[in-house]
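Table 4 source record.
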Amino acid sequence: MSTYETMAFHLETERLILRPWAESDAVEFSALLAERGKGTPTVERARTSIATLLAGTEATGFALLPIQRRAEGDFIGYCGLIIGRSTVEEPEIAYELFQRVHGHGYATEAARAVLDAAAATGRKRLWSTVGAWNTPSLRVLEKLGFARDHMTTDDSGEVVWLTRSLP
């Protein structure tokens, strides 16, 4: 049994709502993943991915959550905690947003809410792993107080490992 509290699965900021996944997110999730440039996953594949994310939430007590803009009500990406290359005790923060909404501070705003939610679970540290080429994402993490820890290499190139202590 985990010694950590369950993460809040509904988070709100001034401009954003982070909430649990719904099957209706599959079309937009597929479109978001297509922006990676590796083909467009089918909607059925996106539904399967959502089911996997929900099962992971059940197992870990934390979640990767869809992001909606309050005013527009549209799905613009996701942000939350994952095991990724880390552990349940010290998970990774992850986020991905549609390119059309880059540069508006949404990733920073959503990630701040997730940091607060992670601290409320009793965790003491988070990780993030980012491709060394991804300067905008590295800037977001630096704004949030993450510090570079080390670098590794994988099939996609250099990976920067960053960490942040939680209050």
